[in-house]
Write a structure and sequence with these properties.
Layout: H1 2-23, E1 47-55, E2 61-70, E3 75-80, E4 84-90, E5 94-96, E6 99-101, E7 105-117, E8 122-135, E9 140-151, E10 155-168, E11 172-185, E12 202-207, E13 210-215, E14 220-227, E15 229-233, E16 236-240, E17 243-251
Antiparallel strand pairs: 1-2, 1-17, 2-3, 3-4, 4-7, 5-6, 7-8, 8-9, 9-10, 10-11, 11-12, 11-13, 12-15, 13-14, 14-17, 15-16
């Protein structure tokens, strides 16, 4: 019953978002080409589609689309059709002509619910997180991202990531960082279809991503990411799991 109710809520939210897209005004602002100048929250009216091609641990490529819409300069639905909102509560973006530039320090909250469905199961993930960006000088900046979520109230996940970015010429940037993800099962019986990491009661992933990003224009970008990752499970190292993905992004 609860699962069906959540499905109906997500369906209704998807219909509302479709109506917003079909009636919303054309954005009057655009995003800078330089990555260091880009705000953590898109300008009001901007719509964004990211197409992520990822090489997963099972040795297969996965293709995933992501859709976002900025309601205001501070509020964005970041993972449509799911009701996940990002709110920039610290730092006001500035305008250079029609281009929106980040403040020296920007911090935002992320909260909402995402999910996925299949014939066998329906997965619900409430989540809460915080993100931020700090400009160091004309070429370097720092970013951070931390939060937690649950999987059907059976598994608790937490993550924290920090990175330093370097603006290489006008359109290119290099980002290196450190990511830590942890999970802990909080239920005695978990369906392996719902939670693929159920071989252990707890686990830890430590990764060191290296990313190159090319902003071809104000509205199109390409990103290539490589992340070697160490996996701990039940207090033991169980392997090195490198991952690779590329992402093509559009905004208008």
């Amino acid at each position: 019953m609860q699962s069906n109710a959540i499905k109906y809520v997500l369906l209704l939210f998807g219909i509302i978002i479709f109506e917003m897209f079909s009636r919303c005004a054309v954005a009057t602002s655009k995003i800078p080409i330089r990555e260091i100048d880009r705000p953590i929250n898109m300008p009001a009216g901007i719509k964004q589609v990211d197409i992520d091609l990822r090489w997963n641990y099972s040795g297969r490529w996965e293709l995933s689309p992501y859709l976002a819409y900025a309601v205001t300069d501070k509020i964005t639905f970041i993972s449509l059709p799911f009701p996940i909102i990002q709110y920039q509560f610290y730092g006001s973006n500035s305008y250079i002509g029609d281009t929106v530039k980040t403040s020296n320090i920007a911090i935002g909250l992320i909260a909402g619910i995402k999910g996925s469905s299949s014939i066998q199961n329906y997965e619900i993930r409430p989540q809460l997180g915080i993100i931020g960006k700090k400009i160091l000088n004309k070429n370097f900046w720092l970013s951070f991202d931390a939060g937690s979520e649950t999987v059907n109230s059976d598994v608790l996940l937490g993550y924290a990531a920090s990175s330093i970015g370097y603006q290489l010429l006008k359109r290119n940037s290099i980002i290196v960082g450190l990511n830590v993800e942890a999970f802990k099962t909080i239920s005695n019986s978990i369906d392996s279809i719902v939670w693929s990491e159920n071989t252990g009661k707890s686990g830890l992933f430590i990764g060191a991503p290296i990313q190159w990003k090319l902003n071809l224009t104000n509205w199109m970008s390409f990103k290539l990411n490589f992340e070697p990752e160490i996996k701990y499970e039940n207090s033991k190292i169980v392997g090195l799991q490198p991952s690779t993905n590329c992402l093509l992004g559009f905004n208008w």
